[in-house]
Design brief:
With 75 residues, the protein is an alpha+beta fold. Helices cover 32% and strands 29% of the residues. The strands form two sheets. Strands 2-1-4-5 form a four-stranded mixed sheet, sandwiched between helices. The chain has a two-stranded antiparallel ribbon with strand order 3-6.
Length: 75
C-alpha cells in the first residue's frame, strides 16, 4: 500500500504524483490541508508538516521531491 501526503498548492506534490502515475505505481493521495485526519497521520509519521511525503506499507520512504518540499497550511 502506497500513500502520498501532500497539498493541492504544493508543486512538488504534483510532480511526485505525476511521477507515480508515469511509473504505474498505484497510490492513495491525501490532501493534508483539507483532511485533518490525514494531517494528524502525517505529523505522527514524520513529526512535521512538510509535503510531499511518500509512505509504503506504513513506513515513510520519502519526504519531499528531488530535495524540495512545501510546508502545509492548516487543515
Amino acid at each position: 500500500m502506497v500513500e502520498l501526503y501532500g497539498t493541492r498548492s504544493c508543486p512538488y506534490t504534483a510532480e511526485l504524483r505525476e511521477h507515480l502515475w508515469w511509473i504505474g505505481k498505484p497510490f492513495t493521495e491525501y490532501d493534508v490541508e483539507q483532511d485533518s485526519e490525514a494531517r494528524a497521520r502525517l505529523v505522527a509519521l514524520t513529526g512535521g508538516i512538510t509535503v510531499p511525503v511518500l509512505v509504503e506499507n506504513g513506513n515513510v520512504v520519502q519526504i519531499g521531491w528531488r530535495g524540495q518540499g512545501c510546508v502545509a497550511g492548516e487543515a
